Amino acid sequence: MASSIERVALHCNEFSENWLQKLIHENPSLLPISEIESGFAPAISMGREIKTNAGFIDNLFISPEGYLTIVETKLWRNPQARREVVGQIIDYAKELSKWTFSELDSSLRNSVHISDGLIAKVRKQPGCEDIEEHTLIDNINKNLRRGRILLLIVGDGIRESVEEMVAYLSQSPQLHFTLALVELQVYRLGDSIDPLLVIPQVVTRTREITRAVVRVEGDYSTGLTLNIDSDLGTEPETLQRRSSGRTTLSAQDYFEQLLQNTNSYTAEFVKKVIADSQQIGLTVEWNTSSFGLQFPDPAGSGLRISIMTFDKRGQIMLGYAEKQLEALGIPSNINHRFCADSAAIFIGLAPNPLKLGSWNRKVAISELIPLYDRFMKKLEAYLDEIANPRMTLD
């Protein structure tokens, strides 16, 4: 039976910012964090009205990886200037960037009465029971020190311009904030007051714009030359396209950890892999400890086929794409053939006998470097087969 729905304006008197704070505290999944910065999800609520020297943070969240999200709720019927709201949330982030884990933990114990502390609060979440305390503390300290914080202004009728937000962010260039505006659209189902349907929408977000282009010339057998062009006059949209896959905080953290685990030569090589992969139609899916290369369904279904994953330890895993191909009606033996053909160019590598679309071990990035050109030819052939499966059958 169909039921009518009616859009409800949040600025009417039956709603308040306190109601909005409580709603997202109890339902963190309402916030489209994974669409903005995947490393900050899933969000675990640390509480409301967190006390700082800059004021009280409306809502504070943390991810199992130690990334903080600050939320400032705003219903625009209030006379407070919009610019003031943007400035306020950035002040909170700047204040937190002066803290350590111990100070954050102490504030949470005192402000929201988390008697057993932040670590215990995180470990109570499903799937987080085995998180290592020292790793989480180190990540939180690092993210606080560098200002790697997601800032969300959540409310109704938000139409702030990106230019005005960037002007505020540019006052603290040493910190790596990401600022996003999220509008919550509320609908009433039928004639009753409850239940309500709440739909989040990312209105806009700022991105860190790359202001230099690093050109890698040469090859990895004879050596590389790095050329850097800076102070470019390129339009922002072009820069965003060039830096696609490298503008997120998750990407920054990945390369820092990769550099710690390998060396600068390997890190630069991975950047070349990303650039080359994007040139042949692959997209990059970032996590805080790895990134995946994916191939969008050429038919436009929106499904992305997993090709391979690079982890922070400098190892590569082949993406297990069999089920994705089957869902698209593409023969899975295309995946099996690529697995076998690509494995054949490495020493001691073979398809996994229990899972034909994957290798029997991880491959070190250092193993890929001297074989890169051969591997990329096989990868391009694989993508061509996915895009033209009928030709393969013929």
TrEMBL record:
InterPro entries: tRNA_endonuc-like_dom_sf. Gene3D superfamilies: 3.40.1350.10. This is DUF4268 domain-containing protein. It comes from Dyadobacter fermentans. The lineage of its organism: Bacteria, Pseudomonadati, Bacteroidota, Cytophagia, Cytophagales.
